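Saturday, quiet lab. Running sequence design on the structure tokens for the scaffold JK sent over.
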């Protein structure tokens, strides 16, 4: 049996007045996804328990069949795993965004999608000026990632209680777009250090050559470090241990790369996959089809719909969904016919409404079809049709059991 999972990140939405009271999923032309709905089963799955963050870190663990109350420790440790960083029992990883803050308003959680080279240069300056001169410098290190997505790693002493704890509270910057930040600074154990680094970075970055050049080019500067998503070392059983099948991940986002590493999936890196709206959708589709010859499960994650939502651009979200349908889902459906028994699942991780520009709690629509999956009465893929099916997984991690087993 071959299995394909396609994750159009954050594609679930709410009816929009600009679209005549329908959602981007309903407005988009999605013949391949609608075809799956007419062949198989639709429904809803809740991947974001109310007591946990409504983000991709929790939602994608749930989507892949892992109970977050048992396995989730924080977002940053998942991204650390993507970079091959091993965390010890007293170590912590903290997500480090480069952001644009103006007049205490979060104007851009990505610093205008700053380049990786520029971000790395700013982080080198932060390491030299903010950490290497501090008495704790030996245990703290900024680690560049991709674009605005970076890390701060704390190495705790084995006989100490550590700098942070589960009571440390931080806020995701993508949930603060165009909002005041004054009430969203870190709180709890270790927060003093995090707030200090965030505040000091503003002075350091204001005169940095990278930002001077960006402003001259008409781009937003990276005004601050924003520290959040902290957590200790996770311990996940492999996907193969749980389900008896070998999988692989196709994604341009470190969070999904990290989850893949922790569940024992190798990643397939795609030239032209950007994690943004300009990603090479067709290349991802081709890579997924090629991977079917080697792996039992191929998971294709596409960040573009989520990025469009964070920018409040329903038109870009519709375009991203149509590209996913045409360049990924459609070709995969056709290719699967040559592999005998097979199943395909299309589902986002969490909702990201264009109206709020941030992740939200709530169930997401899924559609799955293939060998052994009985047909229901739905013929289109959307939030409304999935709800009409009456099928709902309140514990989203149970859906993977149904899909695989």
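Result came back. Writing it out in full:
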């Amino acid at each position: 049996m071959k299995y394909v999972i396609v994750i159009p990140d954050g594609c679930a939405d709410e009816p929009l007045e600009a679209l005549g009271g329908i959602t981007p999923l309903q407005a988009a032309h999605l013949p391949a996804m609608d075809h799956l709905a007419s062949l198989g089963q639709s429904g809803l799955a809740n991947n974001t328990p109310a007591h946990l963050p409504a983000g991709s870190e929790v939602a994608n663990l749930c989507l892949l069949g892992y109970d977050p109350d048992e396995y989730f420790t924080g977002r940053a440790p998942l991204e650390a795993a993507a970079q091959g960083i091993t965390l010890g029992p007293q170590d912590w990883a903290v997500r480090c965004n480069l952001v644009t803050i103006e007049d205490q308003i979060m104007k851009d959680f990505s610093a205008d999608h700053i380049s990786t080279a520029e971000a790395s240069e700013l982080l080198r300056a932060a390491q030299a000026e903010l950490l290497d001169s501090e008495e704790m410098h030996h245990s703290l290190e900024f680690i560049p990632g991709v674009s605005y997505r970076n890390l701060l790693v704390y190495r705790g002493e084995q006989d100490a209680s550590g700098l942070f704890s589960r009571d440390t509270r931080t806020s995701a910057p993508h949930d603060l777009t165009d909002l005041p930040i004054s009430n969203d600074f870190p709180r709890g154990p270790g927060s003093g250090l995090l707030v200090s680094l965030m505040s000091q970075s503003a002075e350091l970055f204001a005169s940095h050559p990278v930002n001077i050049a960006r402003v001259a080019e008409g781009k937003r500067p990276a005004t601050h470090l924003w520290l959040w998503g902290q957590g200790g070392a996770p311990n996940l059983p492999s996907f193969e241990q749980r389900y008896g099948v070998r999988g692989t991940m196709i994604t341009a986002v470190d969070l999904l790369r990290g989850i893949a590493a922790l569940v024992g999936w190798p990643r397939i890196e795609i030239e032209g996959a950007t994690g943004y709206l300009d990603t090479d959708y067709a290349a991802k589709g081709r890579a997924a089809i090629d991977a079917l010859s080697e792996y039992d499960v191929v998971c294709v994650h596409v960040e573009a719909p989520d990025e469009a939502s964070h920018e409040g651009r329903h038109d870009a979200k519709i375009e991203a969904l149509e590209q996913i349908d045409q360049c990924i889902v459609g070709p995969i459906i056709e290719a699967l016919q040559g592999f005998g028994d097979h199943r395909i699942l299309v589902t986002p991780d969490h909702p990201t409404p264009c109206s709020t520009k941030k992740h939200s709690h709530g169930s997401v629509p899924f559609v799955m079809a293939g060998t052994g999956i009985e047909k229901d009465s739905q013929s289109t893929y959307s939030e409304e049709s999935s709800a009409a099916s009456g099928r709902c997984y309140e514990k989203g991690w149970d859906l993977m059991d149904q899909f695989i087993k």
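Notes for JK: The mean pLDDT is 95. The chain has 15 helices and twelve strands. Ask whether to fix the surface positions before the next round.
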